[in-house]
Specification:
The complex is a heterodimer of chains A (212) and B (350). With 212 residues, chain A is α/β, with parallel strands linked by helices. Helix content of chain A is 40%, strand content 14%. Chain A has a six-stranded mixed β-sheet, with helices on both faces. The longest helix of chain A has 22 residues. Chain A starts with a helix and ends in a 7-residue tail after the last helix. Chain B has 350 residues and is an all-alpha fold. A two-stranded parallel ribbon of chain B has the order 1-2. The longest helix of chain B has 31 residues. Chain B is globular, with a radius of gyration of 21 Å. Classes of the chains: A alpha/beta (212), B mainly alpha (350). At the A-B interface, loops of A face helix 4, helix 5 and helix 11 of B.
């Protein structure tokens, strides 16, 4: 309950500073949200996609080496259900187990397949884990989301968030079941590539073209 | 538009009517009643247009519905309490400035892009000028209000750049950032000081500016049709003379001038409603002059932001207002008219 109130306050502040999002509270059933990652603000922005009542049914996948301690860890624990992922794990299957567990329990997931905050406005190659996850839960929709403008507000290395208009673009969902015919390893790669391409296209479409 | 939306809208408009009545601001009540009347008329017009399946129907519908909301919010902000009016207009200035900075492309190395990531500090500083301006206008410290942005904030930006030890792209960044806060904090911020003259003065300026935007569109259309039907000659070539064809292919000098004259005439309606200024009441002749200025300046305000948008290659400045584009698309003319109207009245009557 406390967390819901905290989120409500956060949402008002964010709406004032970064604009009122056009897409909000659209994810009402279990889903996986994947997005481009440029900033710490991304997570807070992405939670706008879930109605306030479901905020405790969402888990945010975060880097274990970064968020297990310190200020980031504390803020994360206060605001989100964090699912710490060991980025340096030798055995990928073991590292992914908590995610499977969460999906089985009916949680929605928010994750960043790039695995890190990249260069502002540039999408890096997706890690393979998302494809595997979607194939193993073929009926849970995976929503690619493109976040615009967040890299200006609080880029990597920035301290103070500066107000800029931040927009979320909810793209067409991808289902693991549509890739089952390709076999597990091909399907995984194809699904991951589809998600990546979808976000990349949305990013490129929104670059203003300066007249020479 | 859902039933709940309609209800909220009605409550907002009703509440501002009641509040204005309680405060005894009869003049504002009149203006508001007229606005609501015009909006109701347009609500009927779009329904008729949709029934007849005319091409412009949906556009007029979206625009009218957004207008309803804008009028409701604006009225509520002006009728509740002085502080609310100030905070609302301050927020509008912030939202416009944010939209301006957001539409400019930003890049790691300021080469071909307009802004660089190092500009974030200076941009934050220009946002912080807004609460300061709100405060100064609220306590009516005119002298500091008028120089704060063009002198202090203006000099703060190069100082911040020096502290960042920059050379690359600093000239471009300084220019673009300064343009932003001069337009949206300083010029638009005069709205705030206008409240001190009386909310009616602000209403006068905003209503006439927005009326010009709407009028010029129809006047432009009508004159273009008239000119097309004329035989070739001096009059026709005058009617078809473009102001700046590259920026806006349709805007003509003739339509601009006719709209300005119409606005000058329309401004006379407000004269009896105007408050008593320290140096007397506003005269009809002076109001006509101010109205004509609003007509001409609004035209250039409109074109100025079309020019900027063309340069960076965006069509609308944002998408926060359905049917209108962004906030800048709505207040671009005000950036030009508000400071001039303020000073014309200030010199003459204060």
């Amino acid at each position: 309950m406390l967390r819901v109130c905290l989120h409500a306050v956060c949402r008002c502040l964010i709406a004032l500073l970064f604009g009122y999002p056009a897409v909000r509270s659209t994810c009402r059933s279990q889903c996986i949200v994947v997005a481009n990652h440029n900033s710490h603000l991304d997570t807070v922005m992405l939670l706008r996609l879930f109605p306030l009542s479901l905020i405790n049914r969402v888990k945010v996948v975060a880097a274990g080496d970064y968020f297990s301690h310190g200020l980031g860890g504390m803020a994360g624990k206060a605001l989100f259900n964090m699912l710490l992922l060991d980025r340096r794990a030798k055995n990928a299957a073991n590292a992914m187990e908590p995610l499977h567990q969460a999906l089985r329990e009916g949680y929605s997931l928010v994750l960043f397949p790039e695995g890190t905050r990249g260069k502002p406005g540039e999408l890096q190659e997706f890690k393979g884990g998302i494809g595997k996850l979607a194939m193993e839960f073929p009926d849970i929709p995976v929503y690619p989301v493109c976040i615009h403008g967040v890299e200006k507000s609080l880029p990597r290395g920035g301290i103070i968030p500066v107000p800029f208009a931040i927009r979320l673009e909810l793209l067409d969902p991808v289902f693991g079941r549509d890739y089952a015919a390709l076999g597990p390893s091909q399907g995984r790669k194809a699904l991951s590539a589809t998600l990546e391409q979808s976000i990349r296209t949305a990013l490129d479409r929104n670059r203003p073209t300066a007249t020479e | 538009m859902t039933l709940l939306n309609k209800l909220v809208l009605l409550v907002a408009i009703g509440a501002s009517f009641v509040l204005l009545h309680m405060k005894g601001q009869t003049e504002m009540l009149w203006i508001m009643a007229v606005l609501v009347g015009i909006l109701s008329l347009f609500s009927i017009i779009w329904r008729v247009m949709e029934a007849k399946e005319m091409a412009m129907g949906p556009e007029i519908r979206d625009r009218t519905i957004t207008w309803w909301w804008m009028v409701a919010v604006f009225m509520l902000a002006l009728s509740t309490h002085r502080i609310v009016s100030f905070l609302f207009l301050g927020f509008l200035s912030f939202a416009a400035l944010r939209e301006y900075y957001s539409m400019l492309p930003m890049h790691e190395k300021a080469g071909d892009k307009v802004l660089s990531f190092k500009d974030r500090g200076a941009i934050l500083a220009s946002y912080l000028a807004i609460p300061t301006i709100i405060l100064l206008a609220y306590i009516e410290w005119y002298n500091l209000f008028i120089i704060l942005v063009p002198v202090y904030v203006f000099l703060l930006i190069p100082i911040l750049f020096i502290l960042q030890n920059r050379t690359q792209g600093c000239l471009k960044s300084m220019g673009v950032i300064a343009l932003g806060f001069m337009f949206f904090v300083h010029n638009f911020g005069h709205c705030l000081f206008m409240i001190n003259m009386g909310p009616i003065v602000l209403m006068y300026c905003i209503a006439l500016t927005e009326a010009r935007d709407l009028l010029s569109f129809w006047v432009g259309k009508g004159l273009a049709r008239k000119a097309a039907a004329m035989p070739k000659g001096k009059l026709r070539s005058f009617l078809e003379r473009k102001i700046a064809a590259e920026i806006s292919p349709k805007k003509t000098w003739a339509a601009g001038l006719v709209s300005a004259v119409l606005i000058a005439l329309l401004s006379l309606v407000f004269v009896p409603l105007m408050p008593d200024f320290p140096d007397g009441r506003m005269s009809y002749a002076y109001s006509a002059l101010v109205g004509f200025m609003i007509g001409m300046l609004g035209l250039f305000g409109d074109l100025a932001f079309s020019m900027v948008k063309r340069d960076i290659g965006v069509k609308d400045s944002g998408s926060s207002l359905p049917g209108h584009g962004g906030i800048i698309d709505r207040i671009d003319s005000l950036v030009f008219t508000v400071p001039i109207v303020f000073h014309l009245i200030y010199w003459q009557y204060f």
